[in-house]
Amino acid sequence: MATGSIFCFFFLAVCSWSGTLGGVTTTTPFLAVDVGASPELMCSYSADFSNPRIEWKFSKEGYKSFVYLDGKLTEPYKDRAQFFNTGIRLDNVTPKDNGTYTCEVVKGTAPSLIGKVTIDLLVRVAPSVPTISVPTSVTTGSKAELRCTETNGNPPSTYKWYKNEMLMPENPKSSQTFQNASYTLDAKTGTLTFYPVSKDDAGDYSCSAGNGIGSDMLSDVVRMEVKNSTEGERPGSAAESSQHLLKKSIGMILILYHTLQHETWKSDRSATTEEKF
User: Among 56, 103, 180, 221, which is most exposed with the fewest C-beta within 10 angstroms?
Assistant: First the structure.
């Protein structure tokens, strides 16, 4: 055991504490349960803690609060937790209960003695049906990005992609079926990227999300078509309309030019005839 000193400052008052760190332990420093479960968070302390004061605290991403203080459960927990012996039981846990729980024991008589232990709680949630985003038409040589996402799973889901109902490996070179494909697959983000796109990349795509809780969830199937980048503009396209307008404008200019030339010729011929007379 180690002896230490704690100094605290509150406005102009100065206080000091000297004591010994005592033995507080737990058999479950990490606890993973499914959503809706009622986990028991337990701690125990050594015999040299006489008349101890026990506190339970919760912390998560900078947020801190008391669970059990001054011999009773605090307001947020009084209707959904129980204190027994030195531990607490949480009822019907949700992902909001994910975090670190600290059991702190302080000896009630001199000499001072304090000890604490932490328990990390993970509330597991099965993934929901993932949302899939696939471009329906792309051109050869371009870049196509397909996305698969779901936000309910805890721990976060990893993703798999399927083309024409066939599982796509993360490394296409490891598969005889996909060894000529040029794609990258990120199983953590669910992103499937083709670059450059080839005609062989056309097909029906779907994805799945899984985190080890329950069954993997499958998305809808979306087809991606691939057309050659050299294919001409379809009838009625913007490019064709521009070309047609340009040709029409050039034609009108030529007609106007020839009309002016003809009028000039007529005028010159009339002037010549008058001179003869």
Answer: 180
